[in-house]
Amino acid sequence: MKWVHCAFDDMTPRQVHDLLRLRQQIFIIEQECIFPDIDGLDPVCNHVFGLLDDRVVAAARIVAPGLDPDHCEQGEYPAIGRVVASPELRGQGVGRKLMLQAIASCDDSFAGKGIFLNAQLYLKSFYASLGFAPFGEAFYEDGIAHISMLRAA
């Protein structure tokens, strides 16, 4: 798998298509969650994605500190969001590799800062194994249980 770290405007039209299609397939169709995935943040975020045969099969976006008005609890921290991997790759460690790439991207761009994320509650242990600690109470976002988590700098 080839890993790419880039700004949205540096993605090819095909990569944007594949990214949005993958997120639609997982978040909207598979998880049956109707929400505005195209929320206006992608163009101002950095993105990390994995390519197989020039096709986006895993992705996450990096939101700069304070950029997302809907998640102001992230405050001074960059946030990793929209973490997704193709169903065909499940059980092969791609999610962990993707998160390690996203963490490295945050560390490169926002050295010395912790990293925030809102994890789907069933993935709390997975994110904890990557150094994220839960805080606050579980909550529902778009009909799915989540927990806020922070990884220390």
From TrEMBL:
Domain of life (superkingdom): Bacteria
UniProt entry tagged with the keyword Transferase: yes
GO molecular function, one term: acyltransferase activity, transferring groups other than amino-acyl groups
A UniProt-annotated Pfam family: Acetyltransf_10
Keyword Repressor: no
InterPro entries reported in the protein's UniProt record: Acyl_CoA_acyltransferase, GNAT_dom
Protein name: Acetyltransferase
